[in-house]
Design brief:
alpha+beta; Alpha-lytic protease prodomain-like; Alpha-Beta Plaits; four-stranded mixed sheet; disordered C terminus
């Protein structure tokens, strides 16, 4: 006979918490990004504008990570039964689309300027880029402590170090324009930075689109998950297995499991939940356990179960 689905709700107990480092890092980079964009527009420097766009992507990324905790803590309602967790997947998708669009426009302008490079205030580019390098290094320092045990912190730390490298390249470009008269360095650097943004944003766009479409998280293999369930005591078959991300660090699973013994039902459910979380990080599990030797089910049967 079919058993009632078992829901594992403990994932709600550990909603991610915003940290002071993410809040401060977001604020500092937001202020500098606005300043750099304003100076870049005033000086007619594509290098500064492209770097500002790059920093804007970081600001959005930091802000989304910071805001994920607040959104995840919203209490589920009868209308939004998972709360607002999905917002943490929609925001990166919008972020990636904006970055790719702006980068495309900058690439077009950079290619046009390479033919006839305009006069750009190299000294101003150097000064602003140097400030940017210090801002990125200072922001990276906020995440240095504890970054080895926290993937989010480590990701932010490494990304900010890479941004400091981009700012260093802008400093060198400004010096080249000031002392060597190489005006082509400004559009050339803008072209390189824009291409880097497109490549990075394309990966984010692909990953976020997969999440929105309820794809199995990239780090999981559904066949391995099915094999774990099949290897549990008395399991004959597993069907209608679905795995999808709910939000930040939250993964849901539903499945029908066919067993040939009804003994130890509650212990079996608990064993399955613990095994799925410990091995795969799946923390929202719903299992429908069926007993008997007939495990042949078609899609119509599946529709009736729900």
């Amino acid at each position: 006979m079919p058993a009632h689905p078992h829901h594992d709700d403990h994932g709600h107990e550990h909603a991610p918490h915003a940290t002071r480092a993410f809040a401060l890092g977001t604020l500092i980079n937001l202020v500098y990004t606005g300043f750099e964009a304003l100076i870049g527009w005033h000086a007619g420097s594509l290098a500064l504008l492209s770097d500002a766009l790059h920093n804007l992507g970081d600001v959005l990324g930091l802000g989304l990570t910071w805001a994920a905790a607040a959104m995840a803590q919203r209490v589920p309602t009868a209308r939004h039964t998972y709360g607002w967790r999905r917002a943490t997947q929609l925001s990166p998708l919008a972020n990636a689309l904006l970055l790719v669009g702006f980068s495309g426009a900058l690439i077009g302008e950079a290619l046009r300027r390479l033919a006839t490079p305009p006069e750009v205030a190299g000294g101003l580019v150097t000064a602003v880029a140097a400030i940017g390098m210090l801002v990125n290094l200072g922001s990276a320092a906020l995440f240095h402590r504890g970054q080895h045990g926290d993937l989010n912190r480590r990701s932010a730390y490494l990304h900010l170090l890479a941004d400091a490298g981009v700012s260093l390249a802008a400093v060198l470009a400004g010096l080249g324009m000031s002392y060597l008269g190489w005006r082509w360095l400004d559009p050339a650097l803008a072209l390189v930075v824009s291409l880097v943004i497109v490549i990075g944003s394309w990966g984010l766009l692909r990953s976020s689109f997969r999440q929105v479409m309820d794809a199995v998280p990239e780090h999981l293999d559904s066949l391995e998950v099915e094999a774990l369930l099949r290897g549990l005591p008395s399991v004959q078959a597993v069907h209608h297995l679905h795995i999808w991300p709910i939000g930040a660090n939250e993964i849901a699973l539903t499945a029908h499991v066919v067993r040939d013994l009804e003994d130890g039902h509650d212990q079996f459910i608990d064993q399955a939940i613990v095994a799925l979380e410990e091995r795969f990080g799946i923390n929202h599990t719903t299992l429908q356990v069926e007993y008997g030797s007939d495990c042949r089910h078609d899609h119509d049967d599946h529709a009736r179960h729900h």
